[in-house]
């Protein structure tokens, strides 16, 4: 069998289309050889395309002899007749499982090298190998389904925004720095040596300017670029669904987002009952030790300071007297934990910065606790009661400043939830986290930094304290959290140029610096800026959650590794010295 041209061979059906209702018709299928089974005399192979798999049977002796040369990933055209399979040969797992194609002719359109990993098996393959040969990886049905889901999501998003009066407007990629808290990717200008464009960390400034321009409602499905240390759910370039609304309030932004999330959940036949719950940031930290709590896990953090306030247990009492607290979580059914389990949790707590962990439980013969001697039985019983621990539960206590106890217990809560399988993958818990602090203190630089971005408005009730007590000011910023992932974040913006200038100053930017970086924007604010606000959704994350994938790399066609490398294209790479000379760049 030699490689032949396609000629006039035209596909009549896809490999996922034919059923028993088509029995008897003549068809032409085009696709990849998925798997070959030579039974001596008859030869079977599965033909694969994006739409599915169809079994081909070759009974003709001469044709079967030739078809023996077929290998996985060869590209072929099959002409033949649709036959209904015998009852016992039906494959109920395949939509085409009731039929097979009795081949009359097979045209080899291209051969293929043996792939570095099989496409037709789910054997574990290292991610580096998968990414290097991404074109082969993408032949796998799972990844194809993910890209199809992503396409559907994008389509649904565009439909939804169009129905709601939003315009999709493109904003520049070669632009000036937009601060979102990460490093910029810079692009040198050849025409202006020594000058650089920055790739946008988000279209933030442009979408606000579109509001100043009177566009009223803007959205865009847009690539953003952030040069930051990568984690499993981060990529140096990623996609946002970005939007901005004039005359917006928090309620209006939420009322736009919630039905959209419901429509996206509809893509996987799920519902998203709304309005979603709202929770102030301070409550999320106190109750879950996280600003993106996974509500599926239960196990709320509780203040258990009271029983220890006057106890003899000096470690806890000292922590409380020093302005800290005792906080605890109750592990349901955790009384069965072995000494070793508890030691492991204590080790984890220490790595997170805690001095240690105290445990307590209601045993059969009375209360038991690692602090029984030091604190006494009454105090421990009081602590179990305060934390609402029932018989069979395990109470874990940490002491210290609020920021420490919440961080430590928040992390323990998640690792216990994973261990105990409390994170039901079929549950979807949406939550708005609101009232974030406006600023965080950077101890090393001895200055305030924005929590969201410098264009976020303060809560009106807090604005008077901006200069006297910036740390206490809350922002009109909100995040949408789904099952412990931040899937969207946004804010009501500053539309008053005087307030914007003050915020730049509080962030340690001199007027000159602010002018050099954002002069055009502050100028624009002076020309009748409507109150406005918006949000951006992390599309990669949302699609990964819909596809039940752990990593966003599984829903991006050509992702980079955790080291920010494109293994397939081999980027980044060195460039021709002539290009560098033109840009007046020296690498040493
Ligand atoms: N630009 C923000 C971000 O990328 C989103 C927003 O405030 O609308 O997080």
Could you characterize the architecture of this molecule?
- With 588 residues, the chain is α+β, with helices and mostly antiparallel strands.
- 28% of the residues lie in helices and 24% in strands.
- It has an eight-stranded mixed sheet, with helices on both faces. A five-stranded mixed barrel has the order 1-2-3-5-4. A five-stranded antiparallel sheet has the order 12-13-16-14-15.
- It is globular, with a radius of gyration of 30 Å.
- The mean pLDDT is 95.
- The structure holds aspartic acid (ASP).
- Aspartic acid binds at residues 180, 202, 204, 453, 489-491, 534-536.
Q: Which geometry do the CA atoms define?
A: globular
Fraction of residues in helix = 25-40%
Q: Spatial order of the strands in the main sheet? A: 6-9-10-22-21-20-17-11
Low-confidence stretches: none
Task: Kindly report the average pLDDT value.
Answer: 95
Q: First CA to last CA: what distance?
A: 56 Å
Structural class based on helices, strands and sheet pairing: alpha+beta
- What value does the Rg take, in angstroms? 30 Å
How big a fraction of the residues is strand? Answer: 15-25%
Largest sheet: 8 strands, mixed
DSSP strand count: 22
Q: How many individual helices?
A: 16
- Heterogens: aspartic acid
For this entry, give a set of tags.
single chain; 588 residues; alpha+beta; eight-stranded mixed beta sheet; five-stranded mixed β-barrel; binds aspartic acid
Write the layout of secondary structure elements.
Blueprint: E1 26-38, E2 43-49, E3 52-58, H1 61-67, E4 75-84, E5 99-110, H2 127-132, H3 134-137, H4 141-163, E6 167-168, E7 186-188, E8 196-198, H5 204-212, E9 217-225, E10 237-246, H6 250-266, E11 277-280, H7 281-288, E12 302-303, H8 314-321, E13 325-331, H9 339-351, E14 358-363, E15 366-369, H10 372-375, H11 377-386, E16 394-400, H12 402-419, E17 430-434, E18 439-442, E19 447-450, E20 477-482, E21 485-492, H13 497-506, H14 511-525, E22 532-538, H15 539-546, H16 577-582
Parallel strand pairs: 3-5, 6-9, 11-17
Antiparallel strand pairs: 1-2, 1-4, 2-3, 4-5, 7-8, 9-10, 10-22, 12-13, 13-16, 14-15, 14-16, 17-20, 18-19, 20-21, 21-22
Helix pairs in contact: 4-15, 7-12, 9-12, 13-14
The structure holds aspartic acid.
